[in-house]
Write a structure and sequence with these properties.
Helices cover 57% and strands 9% of the residues. It has 658 residues and is α/β, with parallel strands linked by helices. It has three domains: 62 residues, no CATH class; 208 residues, no CATH class; 197 residues, no CATH class. The strands form two sheets. Strands 5, 6, 7, 8, 9 and 10 form a six-stranded mixed beta sheet that branches. Helix 9 crosses helix 10 and helix 16 runs antiparallel to helix 17. The two termini are 62 Å apart.
Length: 658
């Protein structure tokens, strides 16, 4: 620039903040605006306005790494808002009200402060990088998205200061987030007031069905009496490994999290392999005296998994009939002409059903149940169609329709029970006992069917159920006892119907387990902490263990002798008091939270028992056959990365929901 011929003009009329980045120079008879960053010359005439200067400033700032900001003065904001007044007035708004709204929203001082804050903004590359990684974890995005052309263009235009990262870099960031989040979960588990129950669930990969993953989830009731859960591990499982290796891997996870001594129960699916694994883990924990009641309540099978297996048995019994029903529905759906003819026949036989006919999704047994439920209501219309249409020959026989009706009734019952047990993602264990007792009684009734085919099916389902009941019935009954609306009365109501003449003995088994469990909790209660603390301080590790064992026996003696002297325990008081009314809205955890001061020891027991996951199946997977599937984009990653992503996603989501 030729300085002698140019004079920098300082004018009080230059009100726009855009002039903070331009010099207005008079050159001859014209004015020039010179950018202070790149020295580019633009028109500085008052008739030219400032829009072209603001547009240049945005582009210029991108090149000079000053960040992006939008320079709109209070006068310009008012102008934009005023242009919208006509629309508001057309919609019936008062013009004065709209003008007041404009004045409130576009206060000049506020605009000035916002502009200054934007200009003072310091870009943090590391924080932005980890925000990106957390976004990928939270929403399950593929790591490779950071190398997609569209994403890179979008980010560069959004903020040119951000240094684009590679797929390997974002993977490392995700692993770092996992380490930090894991530390938080570790601290949370360490501070829990009660025990932890674990569930184990098998997953598979989308493109590699032979690949399996074991998901371990901790379930617990926190200090606020909220039932919560956290995914702890998501491990790749080699199909060639034996059950011994699987149990060793789980034990290693427990010790890695340092929760082996805090474990109360463990829930697996209903399979012989799972039984062996849980038995091995229980034996190892029992050797160290970590389990209550010698592990009687430790081994739990998933109730929803059991219902799914019995539903699959029912559908398998219809394996020859289901194709006919699917073909029948497809036949009437093939043309409007056939559909109209079928509708006339449905009216002729006075079908009152409001259900629509549609082919099922075989991977969701509730979909098959819905198809069968609708089809049996149109059975007479299907029979008429077969008589009048020689091209339709898929109609089931009368005997097949009869069996379909009965088995659909079985599915209806399983469907209703499943819905009750999965209506919340965090069901407490007390709700399972009455529902599964009803299942037990229904299976006993179905076994009396006069049709040998139905009787054989009922026997098959009943065998599965009784294996489950032998393992989990005691834990279910103890959980029901801790519901103040029922206490022991629910057990006393159902057991005579289930066990007949031996019901009294079975009820005594429950009572004895409850008392033993209560006694062990009383020994471990804060009331006994002084004696236990002394026990831990005696001698070396081995002698300390012996002293602890002796004092634990002494605590038990004190507890039993105090009871014999006439003082009532928490358990006695709880069982003697009236039942809580059932006709009011009720939350069992809130009840125990309120009554903890009255029942300090029994509430500890309730916290541990009510947190047992009687089901490990999420509500959105309740009717699904087969395992849950790892997302395709994640399943191709290294096992350690998959674990980091799945666990971190669970932790971040639960943190956002809390």
């Amino acid at each position: 620039m030729d300085v002698p011929e140019a004079v920098i003009v300082k004018s009080s009329r230059l009100k726009s903040v855009v002039w903070n980045d331009f010099d207005r120079i008079k050159k001859g008879d014209t004015f020039v605006a010179v950018c202070r960053h790149c020295k580019k010359k633009l028109s500085g005439s008052s008739t030219s306005g400032t829009s072209h200067l603001r547009n240049h400033l945005i582009r210029c700032q991108r090149r000079s790494n000053h960040g992006m900001s939008q320079f709109i003065t209070s006068r310009e904001k008012k102008k934009e808002a005023t242009l919208a007044i006509t629309n508001y007035v057309d919609q019936g708004q008062k013009k004065d009200d709209v003008l007041n709204l404009v004045n409130i929203r576009f206060d000049p001082e506020q605009v000035k402060d916002e502009t200054n804050n934007t200009l003072n903004y310091n870009f943090d590359q590391r924080r932005s990088r980890f925000d990106l990684a957390r976004m990928i974890i939270l929403h399950g995005y593929p790591l490779g998205m950071v190398e997609h052309v569209g994403f890179r263009v979008f980010v560069k235009n959004l903020h040119p200061l951000f240094e684009l990262v590679s797929c390997n870099r974002v993977e490392s960031d995700c692993l770092e987030i996992y380490v930090k989040e894991k530390q938080k979960v570790n601290e949370l588990l360490d501070k829990l007031p009660g025990k932890i129950s674990l569930s184990a669930d098998m997953w598979t990969a989308t493109d590699h069905l032979e690949s399996s993953y074991l998901c371990l989830t901790a379930h617990y009731i926190d200090e606020s009496w909220q039932l919560s859960k956290k995914v702890l591990n998501f491990m790749f499982v080699d199909p060639s490994h034996t059950e011994d290796l699987h149990s060793d891997a789980i034990m290693n996870c427990l010790m890695d999290w340092d929760i082996d001594r805090k474990l109360f129960s463990m829930t697996f699916d209903c399979s012989s392999n799972s039984d062996y694994i849980s038995l091995r883990i229980r034996d190892r924990l029992s050797q160290n005296r970590f389990l209550y009641c010698n592990g009687q309540l430790f081994d739990v099978s998933c109730a929803i998994d059991l219902l799914n297996l019995m539903a699959q048995d029912a559908l398998e019994a219809l394996c020859d009939i289901l194709p006919k029903i699917r073909d029948s529905i497809q036949c009437i759906k093939q043309s409007r002409e056939v559909q109209a003819k079928f509708n006339e026949m449905a009216e002729q036989v006075k079908v009152q059903s409001q259900k629509g006919l549609s082919v099922d999704n075989p991977s969701q047994w509730n979909s098959t149940y819905a198809m069968l439920g609708a089809a049996v209501e149109y059975r007479e219309a299907f029979s008429l169609l077969q008589e009048s249409d020689v091209g339709y020959s898929a109609c089931p026989t009368e005997e097949e329709w009869g069996r379909t009706c009965v088995i659909t009734g079985f599915l209806k019952f399983f469907f209703e029970v499943t819905n009750i047990l999965t209506k919340t993602n965090f069901p407490t264990s007390n709700i399972f006992f009455p529902e599964l007792c009803d299942v037990h009684l229904q299976l006993m009734e179905w076994s009396k069917n006069s049709d040998d085919y139905i009787k054989a099916l009922a026997f098959k389902m009943r065998t599965k159920f009784e294996e489950y009941w032998d393992k989990c019935g005691l834990a279910l009954a103890v959980s029901a006892m801790l519901d103040p609306r029922f206490k022991m009365k629910l057990v006393e109501y159902y057991y005579p119907q289930i066990y007949g003449v031996v019901a009294v003995q079975r009820i005594d088994d429950v009572v004895n387990c409850v008392k033993a469990l209560y006694n062990e909790h009383s020994i471990c209660s804060p009331l006994a902490s002084i004696d236990q603390g002394l026990a831990w301080q005696v001698g070396s590790s081995s002698s300390g263990k012996d002293a602890r064992d002796r004092l634990m026996g002494f605590d038990k003696f004190l507890h039993e002798s105090s009871q014999s002297e006439g003082s009532k325990s928490d358990l006695d008081k709880y069982l003697e008091e009236p039942l809580f009314p059932r006709n009011v809205e009720f939350n069992v955890l809130n009840w125990w939270k309120v009554h903890t001061p009255r029942y300090p020891i029994l509430s500890m027991m309730a916290r541990n028992v009510l947190g047992i996951p009687m089901s490990k199946v999420a509500s959105d997977c309740a009717f699904r056959s087969g395992r849950r599937v790892v997302d395709r984009e994640w399943s191709s990653l290294k096992p350690a990365t998959i674990q980091a992503l799945v666990c971190s996603q669970d932790w971040i989501r639960s943190e956002l929901e809390s």
